[in-house]
């Protein structure tokens, strides 16, 4: 029965592809609007954010974050024949201290679960960026929307490496 409601809720979802070419679509989105994401999502959690900031400040790592989205995820190991294991979102408030740094680099959206601080929500508005949430506790379900995985940096961190995933119709909700 739950899958029926999921399909019904997302049948009129707006589609967004990352990296976005234009952020104008963000202005048409309202709180709780369903979206289906395609394209590439950057993936990083707590440790990765710290390492990225340090490497970027030192000049030992370069990456174009402009108009990209960061999915807060640390997937489980991939089962045989799969490219990724369970890939559910991490609680976003833990990443609040790093949001402004990445918004300054051009990040267009973050994807996770749970509430953000009022200050961070104001930052999203100021930078014309989005906070999107996806289904907590449904990592196995979400992994079916992931078609490719590429490690970008810090492979020694395992599931907390800096990597990107290619997704098609990855479900999320807008939070404003």
Describe this structure in words.
With 176 residues, the protein is an alpha/beta fold. The two termini are 29 Å apart. The protein has a single domain (32-175), classed as fumarase, CATH 3.20.130.10. It has a five-stranded mixed barrel with strand order 2-3-4-5-7. The chain has five helices and seven strands; from the N terminus they run αββαβαβαβαββ. It has helices spanning 2-10, 46-58, 99-104, 118-126, 139-143, and strands at 14-18, 34-43, 69-71, 109-112, 130-133, 146-153, 162-175.
Major beta sheet, strand line-up = 2-3-4-5-7
Tally of individual domains: 1
Q: What spatial form do the alpha-carbon principal axes imply?
A: globular
Question: How far do the termini sit from each other?
Answer: 29 Å
| Number of contiguous helices | 5
Q: Give the oligomer, counting copies of the same chain as homo and different chains as hetero.
A: single chain
Give the strand tally: 7
Classify the secondary structure makeup into a structural class: alpha/beta
Let me know the average pLDDT. Answer: 94
Rg over CA atoms, rounded to whole Å, is: 15 Å
CATH class value:
Alpha Beta
What would you give as the CATH superfamily? Fe-S hydro-lyase, tartrate dehydratase beta-type, catalytic domain
The CATH topology annotation reads as fumarase
Major beta-sheet overview: 5 strands, mixed, barrel
CATH architecture: Alpha-Beta Barrel
């Amino acid at each position: 029965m739950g899958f029926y409601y999921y399909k019904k809720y997302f049948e009129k979802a707006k589609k967004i592809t990352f990296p976005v070419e234009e952020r104008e679509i963000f202005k048409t989105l309202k709180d709780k609007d369903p979206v289906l994401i395609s394209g590439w999502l950057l993936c990083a959690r707590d440790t990765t954010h710290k390492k990225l900031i340090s490497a970027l400040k030192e000049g030992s790592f370069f990456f174009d974050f402009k108009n990209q989205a960061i999915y807060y995820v640390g997937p489980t190991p991939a089962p045989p024949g799969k490219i990724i294991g369970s890939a559910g979102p991490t609680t976003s408030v833990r990443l609040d201290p790093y949001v402004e740094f990445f918004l300054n680099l051009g990040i267009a959206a973050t994807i996770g679960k749970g509430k953000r601080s009022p200050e961070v929500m104001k930052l999203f508005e100021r930078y014309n960026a989005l906070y999107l949430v996806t289904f907590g506790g449904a990592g196995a379900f979400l992994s079916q929307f992931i078609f490719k995985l590429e490690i970008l940096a810090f492979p020694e961190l395992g599931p907390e490496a800096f990597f990107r995933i290619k997704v098609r119709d990855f479900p999320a909700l807008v939070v404003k």
